[in-house]
Amino acid sequence: MGKKACEEKISVECGHLMDILLEYNGEAVDLTEPLHYAVSNIICSLVYGSRFKYENPQFTNMVEKTKERIHLAGSPSVAVCDMFPWTKHWIKDREELLNIIDELKSENLKMIHHLKETLDPQMCRGFIDAFLAKQMALEKSGDKDSLYTEENLMSTVLALFIAGTDTTSTTLRWGLLLMAKYPHIQDKVREEINSVIGSRQVQTEDRKSLPFVDAVIHEIQRFGNIAPMAISHRTTQDIVFQGHFIKKGTIVWPLLTSILKDAAEWENPNSFYPEHFLDDNGKFRKRDAFLAFSAGRRTCPGESLARMELFIFFVSLLQRFRFTAPPGVRADDLDLTPVAGITLSPRPHQLCALPLSSAAFSINQSNE
Ligand code: HEM
Q1: Considering the domain boundaries, does residue 350 fall inside one?
Q2: Which residue did the predictor score with more confidence, 362 or 18?
Q3: Cα–ligand 1 centroid distance for 300 (angstroms)
Q4: For residue 227, which atom of ligand 1 is closest to its CA?
């Protein structure tokens, strides 16, 4: 799927999210669920070729199960099991984790069967269609060793949901919380948006003309440090790394915190400081130590989608709403201590999304 089509799907979903925020009418709410639904629906659009209504129980159940799966994967006992696999039979959370994976598989199997029955290989609706069309073409040509198997399809689909939802929505939650905590930065973001693009719908090409916004989004990711240990890897051969011998088959966790919060790399490693990504002339400054998506051959394959989502959501939301602490809570008192897990997320909190004057219009285009 092309960049333009992705951008279109993100904008549509962002429109649905903003309609929900308008319904709250500035009341204090926990934004976790609407953000999660919106981001998850983008993956649905790309994978299945269609989005779901937020009230659809099949959708809400899948989102819930994916959330539970991520939560359990980050539980201390499952982490112990990942590090010492021989403990697996005693870990109850692991059993629950496997049950959830089974449930997610059976929901996806239903979706895949439906898509297979209605497949037109000339008109792929999403990733699953493209996979099935390729699988059919290879079968026809007599290819017996194809990697286009049902098993590979299922694990790729599950990986896209699991890796592509919580990461982006948690980053957005950090972003809005940080904007409410630091209103002067929020004002500066909005000033730049207003002067460069006004109230028209944002596009990814606008990033170049919005250096402060770009710096703020990078700093949200650096400060939020949402994937502190990335994911586990295993060495495929004996290797000496920085003077340490590591045996073939060793499980290795790349600790991204060590670089994202490295005092030798960042002027204010433990503060929210967008200037980390700005030069003296206020232009965006790329930093080699920005490894929020990790590095190397197993770096995050969803990086460009995630960057597009973060940019379009963040700009669209700040164009139309002011995010503040709930009545009676001072901005200073908003808590930035993360909840630890396999991802680092903000503590449960509420914010007010106050519609700005131009927020009366909705960019929502119904494609349900
Ligand atoms: C802000 C958003 C995101 C962040 C910070 C993030 C970060 C990461 C990190 C740190 C890894 C581990 C890489 C490693 O261990 O070297 C990873 C893996 C992965 N990410 Fe992302 N990610 C994000 C969004 C997404 C999205 C939107 C998708 C899918 C569309 C995605 C799909 C994946 C997949 C499939 C893997 C596993 C790759 C493998 O096993 O080789 N991610 N991500």
Answers
A1: yes
A2: 18
A3: 4
A4: 10
